[in-house]
Specification:
Layout: H1 2-71
């Protein structure tokens, strides 16, 4: 009887260890997936920043165009 009880306890302990090992392997996949999502978020933020910089430089070109148009315009006073 004691051998049966000890055998069952050992089997349960083995199943617990296998379950923990399975969770650890599965957790690696979860962490990898979270890193992939974080990478997409960082890449999206970089794309948004680059787009904003291009808009600002486009506005700067418009400002310089307006300044040079006024500075280089022929004088019509005379």
């Amino acid at each position: 009887m004691l051998a049966v009880v000890l055998g069952v306890m050992t089997a349960r302990l083995g199943m617990v260890f296998l379950g923990v090992a399975g969770v650890a392997v599965g957790a690696v996949g979860v962490v990898r997936g979270l890193f992939v999502i974080a990478g997409f978020v960082v890449f999206g933020g970089f794309a948004m920043m680059l787009g904003g910089m291009l808009v600002m430089f486009g506005g700067l070109v418009v400002v310089f165009d307006g300044v040079f148009a006024h500075v280089c315009a022929p004088d019509s006073s005379g």
